[in-house]
């Protein structure tokens, strides 16, 4: 099973680890594309601060993120699972998983990123600020920049198993499973059952808890239909819609009674 996660806006500090080594990251087929984004982002952020803030969509209160990006080549790196914080990652609680579940997380979780493309939670990265919606002056829209290299690398990473896609639309734009792989992919919405509306906070929290449940249980569903059965056994209320034709993903709605 391959689980596709969005990153978090908020990130922990880089810490005192060794600096980033791009060639040490998983999915080495993305190295050249990562280097291109990193080079331009650092150049942008070492120049005109106001321009950088505008390009990155940063408020006045986040001005310090420009300097953080400028220092990326020498900043300390920590496992991505420690860098990404926020509601989903708090609920997922990687640090509190047992050893077996941590091993499963290392093998199955991929976090999408405007800067790195996609990384495993064990990949050492520094803290940064660069969303997938950014348009860099030289590279253009990052989602577009990542599509070709992702299309080369991600199908191999997915193998012949299930793909559980929990990304937001901005990150899903960088890579969409196609063909036979799409038929093994399940996308998930979390709905407040009484209103059937998506509410951001508990949408993220429920997705984090759901991934934690799968990792803790050692579940290994082979396809979306089996995933639905496993989630129901774990106590989730799931409505599933199989694709109407080949080349489309399954759609799963997880219904939650309380907002928390």
How is this fold's topology laid out?
Blueprint: E1 2-5, H1 31-45, H2 49-56, H3 64-70, E2 78-79, H4 80-83, H5 87-92, H6 99-108, E3 109-113, E4 117-120, E5 124-125, E6 135-136, E7 140-141, H7 142-158, E8 163-165, H8 169-172, H9 179-182, E9 185-192, H10 200-217, H11 224-233, E10 237-241, E11 250-256
Parallel strand pairs: 1-3, 1-8, 8-9, 9-11
Antiparallel strand pairs: 2-5, 3-4, 6-7, 10-11
Helix pairs in contact: 1-3, 6-10
Protein model, in words:
Helix content is 40%, strand content 17%. With 260 residues, the protein is of the alpha/beta class. Strand 3 and strand 4 form a beta hairpin. It is globular, with a radius of gyration of 18 Å. The mean pLDDT is 95.
List the defining traits of the structure above.
about 15% strand; 7-stranded mixed sheet; alpha/beta; about 260 residues; two-stranded antiparallel sheet
SS elements, strand count: 11
Helix content: 25-40%
Q: Beta-strand level of the residues, as a percent range?
A: 15-25%
What structural class should be given to the helix and strand makeup? alpha/beta
Cα gyration radius (Å): 18 Å
What strand line-up does the widest sheet have?
A: 4-3-1-8-9-11-10
Distance between the termini: 28 Å
Mean pLDDT: 95
Uncertain residue ranges: none
Can you tell me the overall shape?
Answer: globular
Count of helix runs: 11
Order of helices and strands: EHHHEHHHEEEEEHEHHEHHEE
Q: Mind summarizing the main beta sheet?
A: 7 strands, mixed
What's the gist of this structure?
The protein is α/β, with parallel strands linked by helices and 260 residues long. The protein has helices at 31-45, 49-56, 64-70, 80-83, 87-92, 99-108, 142-158, 169-172, 179-182, 200-217, 224-233; strands spanning 2-5, 78-79, 109-113, 117-120, 124-125, 135-136, 140-141, 163-165, 185-192, 237-241, 250-256. The longest helix is centred in the C-terminal third of the chain and has 18 residues, at 200-217.
């Amino acid at each position: 099973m391959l689980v596709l996660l969005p990153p978090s806006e908020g990130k922990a500090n880089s810490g005192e680890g060794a600096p980033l080594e791009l060639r040490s990251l998983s999915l080495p087929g993305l190295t050249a594309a990562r280097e291109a984004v990193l080079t331009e982002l650092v150049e942008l952020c070492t120049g005109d601060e106001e321009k950088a803030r505008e390009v990155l969509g940063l408020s006045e209160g986040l001005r310090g993120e420009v300097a953080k990006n400028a220092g990326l080549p020498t900043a300390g790196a920590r496992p991505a699972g420690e860098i990404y914080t926020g509601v989903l990652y708090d609920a997922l609680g990687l640090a509190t998983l047992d050893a077996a579940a941590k091993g499963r997380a290392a093998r199955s979780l991929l976090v999408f990123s405007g800067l790195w493309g996609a990384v495993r939670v064990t990949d050492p990265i520094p803290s940064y600020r660069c969303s997938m919606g950014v348009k860099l002056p030289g590279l253009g829209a990052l989602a577009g920049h990542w599509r070709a290299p992702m299309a080369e690398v991600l199908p191999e990473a997915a193998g012949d198993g299930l793909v559980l896609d929990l990304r937001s639309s901005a990150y899903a734009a960088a890579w969409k499973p196609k063909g036979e792989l799409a038929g093994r992919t399940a996308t998930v919405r979390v709905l407040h059952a009484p209103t059937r509306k998506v509410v951001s906070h508990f949408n993220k929290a429920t997705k984090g808890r759901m991934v934690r449940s799968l990792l803790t249980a050692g579940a290994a569903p082979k396809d979306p239909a089996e995933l639905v059965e496993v989630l129901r056994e774990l106590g989730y209320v799931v409505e599933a819609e199989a694709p109407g034709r080949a080349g489309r993903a399954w759609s799963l709605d997880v219904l939650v009674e309380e907002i928390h």
